[in-house]
Amino acid sequence: MRNWDDLRVFLATARAESLTGAGRDLRMDPATVGRRVARLEEGLGATLFAKSPQGYALTEAGQKLMTHAEAAEAALRAGTGEASGAGEGLSGTIRIGAPDGCANYLLPQVCARIAEAHPALDIQILALPRVVNLSRREADLAIAVSRPKTDRLRAEALSEYRLSLAASDDWIARHGAPTSPADLKGARMIGYIPDMIFDAELDYLSALGVAHVPLASNSISVQLNLARAGAGLAVVHDFALPFAPELRRVLPGEVALTRTFWLVSHAGPRDARLDRVARLLRDGMRAELARLEAAVA
C-alpha cells in the first residue's frame, strides 16, 4: 500500500467507473487520475481495473482492495467525525438520499427542523426514483424501502408507513367510487411504469390484482399529481394525503398496504457526526410520519 491519497484516487475511479468521472469528483485532470491509478497498480503488482469503452470495472484484485480502502476511508471519517462531533452543534455537509415520495413529503419538514437546530450543518436531499448507491458515495445516508442485502451496508428499520387507494372528488363524481377490490381491474389506474419498478416493495398494483396501468410514471409524486388532476385511481402514501386535499381514500377498509422505511449507512467504523445526524433523522422521521398519518386517520 502506498498512501491514503492513492487510495482516494482509487476509490473515486471505482465509484465513477471512469477517469473522467473520478477527475470531476476529485477536481483533477483525468490524465492525472490515469497516471495515479497506473502507479498504484505498478506498486501493488496487480491489475485493479478492466478497462473497456464502457469504462473502468474492478477486477478481482480491485474488489479486494476496495474492501480495505473503504475500511480505511471509514476509519478516517470516524476519526474526523469524532473531532467535529465533540461539540453541541453539527457542521459540515450531509447528503441524504431517498425515494421521491419520502424526499418530497417527509424529509423537508424533518431536515428543516434539524437545520434550525444546527445552522452550521449543510443538508442536501438527493431524491431519486431508484435505489441510492451508497457504495459509490452518492450520499452519506439513505432511506430505502427494503433492507439492503449486503454486509457492506448497515440498515436500521426506521418506521412502518401506510398506503391507501385514493382518487379525487372530481373523478369519483364522474365515475363513481369502486365498491370492492374486484372493481379495480376495470378502473383507470395510476401507478409505476412496470419495467421501472426498482424495488418489489413498490409493486403495489400487482398486490391488488391489477395488471394494466394506463397512466404511469416512475415518480410517486407525479402519480399523486395525476390523481389530484382527476386522472384515475392511485395507491398513495397516507403521509402524502395531507398535501393533496383533492383526494379521498377509496375502499379504506379493504385496500390498505403497509411498508417499512430503512435507514441505510456505510458499514465499518462508526462516524460520530454521522451517527448524530442519523439519530436526528430517525427521530424526526418517526415523529413526522405519526403526525401526518394521524391527520389522515
From TrEMBL:
InterPro entries registered for this protein in UniProt: LysR-type_TF_proteobact-type, LysR_HTH_N, LysR_subst-bd, WH-like_DNA-bd_sf, WH_DNA-bd_sf
PANTHER family listed in its UniProt record: HTH-TYPE TRANSCRIPTIONAL REGULATOR, TRANSCRIPTIONAL REGULATORY PROTEIN
Entries under SUPFAM superfamilies matching the protein: Periplasmic binding protein-like II (SSF53850), Winged helix' DNA-binding domain (SSF46785)
Organism listed in the record: [Roseibacterium] beibuensis
Domain HTH lysR-type: 1-59
Family: Belongs to the LysR transcriptional regulatory family.
Record protein name field: LysR family transcriptional regulator
Entry keywords, A to Z: DNA-binding, Transcription, Transcription regulation
